[in-house]
């Protein structure tokens, strides 16, 4: 798989984790569960979500929200795409839409934005001859969204894992909010209830360490303990649920040619844009 991953410009960094331009060489893709909201636009080819008994063709441009289950896709070989991954609260800040509307869903971008906006963005991205021009086009679009007056009130700050793992009442007290007020704001800004998001955040912190290390250097028990898992077995159960595989098989398979985990074959320069 070919791809180019960039950090957004400084005005967007509080809201956007990264922008990826990629082209699939294989026809299968498998994505772990994620706490992030993503905007994806196919500039050539297309993809379908593989269900238990059928395939569901995805729109050429769509928003997909946080999800607690891994997803498998069939992708036309040679498909090119632009993907924008938002930080917690970032999607709501950019579009003025509650992130929980997209939890475990894939929504056509045309249905989420004012009429004609998605089509114009797709046309502009297709006209961009160079990767740098496509990134600039995506950033200009996001900056317009931030500045057009639709930003929601009642945001939440970025919350490190240690704070996310606090009891809801204690976290609410730290933020000078009532518990129910925190739960409502969390749902709108983070896309799912606190109890679900904290599980994904803990899993993501472990995944970051696995992707950054080498199999020989990884101490699974230590990594699980640092992420506040009860024990290594607890970590492996969560990993199986969120990836659909064991940590060992995942790490081995993602290095193989044509792997369904090819999107996770990050090099050292790309990792910070995904895992910070």
Automatic annotation (TrEMBL):
Keywords: DNA-binding, Transcription, Transcription regulation. Residues 171-253 form the HTH araC/xylS-type domain. The keyword Nucleus does not apply. It comes from the Bacteria. This is Helix-turn-helix domain-containing protein. Gene3D superfamilies: Homeodomain-like. InterPro entries: AraC_XylS_family_regulators, DUF6597, Homeodomain-like_sf, HTH_AraC. The keyword Membrane does not apply.
């Amino acid at each position: 798989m070919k791809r180019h991953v960039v950090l957004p410009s400084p005005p967007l960094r509080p809201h956007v984790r990264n922008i990826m331009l990629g082209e699939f060489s294989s026809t299968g893709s498998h994505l772990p569960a994620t706490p992030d909201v993503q905007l994806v636009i196919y500039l050539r080819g297309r993809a379908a979500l593989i269900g238990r008994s059928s395939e569901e063709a995805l729109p050429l441009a769509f928003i997909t929200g946080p999800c607690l289950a891994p997803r498998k896709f069939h992708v036309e070989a040679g498909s090119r795409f632009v993907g924008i991954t938002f930080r917690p609260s970032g999607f709501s800040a950019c579009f003025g839409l509650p992130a929980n509307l997209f939890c475990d869903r894939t929504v056509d971008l045309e249905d989420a934005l004012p009429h004609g906006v998605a089509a114009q963005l797709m046309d502009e991205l297709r006209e961009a001859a160079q990767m740098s021009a496509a990134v600039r086009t995506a950033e200009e679009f996001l900056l317009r969204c931030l500045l057009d007056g639709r930003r929601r009130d009642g945001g939440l700050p970025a919350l490190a894992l240690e704070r996310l793992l606090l009891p809801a009442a204690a976290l609410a007290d730290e933020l000078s909010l009532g518990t129910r007020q925190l739960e409502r704001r969390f749902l709108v800004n983070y896309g799912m209830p606190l109890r679900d998001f904290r599980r994904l955040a803990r899993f993501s912190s472990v995944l970051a360490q696995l992707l950054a290390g080498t199999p020989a250097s990884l101490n699974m028990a230590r990594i699980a303990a640092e992420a506040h898992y009860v024990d290594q077995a607890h970590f492996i159960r969560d990993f199986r649920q969120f990836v659909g595989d064991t940590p060992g098989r995942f790490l081995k398979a993602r290095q193989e040619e044509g792997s369904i985990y090819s999107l996770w074959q990050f090099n050292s320069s790309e990792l910070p844009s995904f895992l910070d």
